[in-house]
Amino acid sequence: MAYSTILTEVKEPERVGIITLNRPEVRNAIDYVLRQEVYQAITEFENNPAVGAIIITGGPKVFSAGADIAAMVKQTAQETFNRVSLWELANKMTKSRKPIIAAIAGFALGGGCELAMACDVRIATENTKMGQTEINIGIIPGGGGLSRLTRLVGMGKAKELVLTGKPISADEALQINLINKVVPEDKLMEEAMKMAGSMSKHSPVALGLAKYALENAANVDIFTAESIENSCFSLAFASNDQKEGMMAFLEKRKPEYQGK
């Protein structure tokens, strides 16, 4: 499918699908079209058996400076409420059975930070600046910058970031668990591909079950969490991949997973 705001490709033999935000003239600002196209690209990668993991990046200069303010400034409350929101895209990413990695360079602010937080893992360059800067233009985060941020960094730090609107460095983002890893600028995609490849080599069934269990067991009581984990663990034994993985281990060979 042809896109106007993103680029897509599949890397072989790593089995990694890459989505690159491609609005350099506005520092990859997120508008309605970009949200829709990223949503569609993720759907296509989900349905592609040649893709085991997904990377979302903005390229070597900027991940995303945030929402497209020029497109938002005249929106009414009703139009804003009825829009196809970043929340819907974030939920799509969360529910995807395939791991999604954010490869972040430069700014990831406002909606850009929210898009990054919707990924499963975040790798950033040393020059990265992240933050929820919406308060600076008279609004508040509306695509996960309140709820997802709090779950990642805790209430106190989330309040600091949201209420001051000040971006933080990659090093501070690493310290508060907003990102997973900081790398030199010229190593960003190499590190992202390395991590994506280390995930995509595993059983698609096991990856999907693990991601589902992690997402759904995190925000419930311990007894419900144990039930979710045990159910997903048991369900893995209904797959051919479980048999293949265990037999390959016993036979000391590389498994050949089919995602079934």
How would you describe the overall organization of this protein?
- With 260 residues, the protein is an alpha/beta fold.
- The protein folds into two domains: 6-200, 2-enoyl-CoA Hydratase, Chain A, domain 1 (Alpha-Beta Complex); 204-250, Lyase 2-enoyl-coa Hydratase, Chain  A, domain 2 (Orthogonal Bundle).
- The chain has twelve helices and nine strands.
- The protein has a six-stranded mixed sheet with strand order 1-2-3-4-6-9, sandwiched between helices. The chain has a three-stranded mixed sheet with strand order 5-7-8.
- It is globular.
- The mean pLDDT is 93.
Overall pLDDT level: 93
Instruction: State the helicity in percent bands.
Output: 40-55%
As residue ranges, the low-confidence spans are none
Contiguous helical run count:
12
Largest sheet: 6 strands, mixed
| Strand adjacency order, main sheet | 1-2-3-4-6-9
How many domains in all? 2
CATH fold descriptor of the largest domain: 2-enoyl-CoA Hydratase, Chain A, domain 1
Distance between the termini: 27 Å
- β-sheet strand percentage: 5-15%
Query: Element order, helices and strands?
Result: EEHEHHHEEHEEHHEHEHHHH
Give the class-level CATH name of the largest domain: Alpha Beta
The named CATH superfamily of the largest domain: 2-enoyl-CoA Hydratase, Chain A, domain 1
- CA gyration radius, whole angstroms: 19 Å
Strand runs, count? 9
Global shape: globular
Summary of the model, kept short:
With 260 residues, this protein is α/β, with parallel strands linked by helices.
